[in-house]
Amino acid sequence: MTTEKKNQHYIPKFYLRYFAYKGREQIGIHNTQSGYTFSTAKLKKQGSKNFFYGNDGVIEEHLGKLESKLALVIKRIRDNHLLPKKNSKDYVTLLHFIALTHLRNPVAMQQELDANKQKREKVAELYPYHETKQLIPEITNIEAISASLLSVSYLVRNLLDLECKILINKTKKGFITSDLPVVRYNQFLEERKWPHGKSGFGKIGLQIFIPLSHELCLILYDSAIYKVGNRKEERIVIDDVNDIDQLNMLQFTNCFQTVFFSDKVTEDYIQYLKRRSVPYQKANIVNSTTKRAFVNGDVAKEKIIILSTITDNQIKLNTKAIKVHAQGKKKVLSTSLAQYRAWPEFLNKNKDQMLKEVLNL
C-alpha cells in the first residue's frame, strides 16, 4: 500500500515553525550549493522530500506520533526559557528530540549510503575476483535511513551525562538553523590538535548546539571540560555579536544544503555568514580508508580493515560564553584513538547488552 502522506518532513514541521513568520507560513531559505536565497519561502515545502521514509507510511506514521510528544516539551522550553529537571521524563524526551532530529535527515541517510558505497569499492579493489555484493550488499535509501534511526535509543543513553543550558541571544542578529540543525562540536579536542575523530557522541569535550528560535539555542556539553556562563545559571545571555556569528557559521558548515532563517535575519547577513564559513571544511563527509591489522603481531595473519570516518566541524570556535575551565585544561588524553567520556565508555564496554535492549531481543 502507498501512503497518502507523500510530502514527508525530515525536519520536524513544528521545529521549522519556530523560525517562520507571517502566520507561521513563510520562512527564509538559502541553498548553499546553488547560492539561491529567498526570504519568503513557503514553510510547508521545506525540510521535506517525497516519500523520504518510504511508500508504506510506517516510519512516517511512527515519527508523527513521537513528534506530538516532542513538540510539547520543546514548546515549554521556548515559552518559559526553562529546562526540565535532569533525567526527568521530559528531559529524556528532550534528548530524544535531539537524537531524532540528528538522525532523520538526508545527511544521516547519505552517510550510510556513502559508507556502504566506499566499502564496496574498497572490497572490489582488494578482491577483484569476488562478487562485491556477496561481501557487502548494496543498501537502499530506506534501508539507510532505517539503519540510522535504529541508533536513537543508544544515542540518548550517551547524552545522559551531558549538562544542558539555554543560550539567550540579546544581539540584533538572530540565530539561524538548517536542514541538519543539531551541530556536534569539540572545542577541547580541536584546541589540543587531536588528529582523530572529535565529534562522536561519546567523546570527551563534546558540545552540541541546536537553535530553537532566532533568540534561543540549546547547548549540551561535557561539564568535566567546559564552563558555560556561571555554574549555577541555566540561562546564559549572549550580547556579543561575534559569539552569535560563530554559532551561526556552524549551521553553514554542518548543513546538507539549506539554511533557514526568520524575518529577524537579513539576506545580507546570510551572505556575510557564508563568506566567513567558506575557509572551513564541510562537516559530515564520509571518508573510507583501508588499514592493515596484525593478529597478535603475526604478519602471516594480517587482516585488512576498512574504516569509515566522518569529517568534524572545525571553525576555531572561540566565544566569551563557552570556555574550557581550569580542570579541563589539565585533562590528560589517553593513547587510545577514541577519547571517551566516562559514561559512554561504560556503555561501550556493555554495548552487547545495550544493543539487545535497543533491538528488544
From TrEMBL:
One Pfam assignment: DUF4238
InterPro entries recorded: DUF4238
Name by which UniProt lists this protein: DUF4238 domain-containing protein
Taxonomy of the source species: Bacteria, Pseudomonadati, Bacteroidota, Cytophagia, Cytophagales
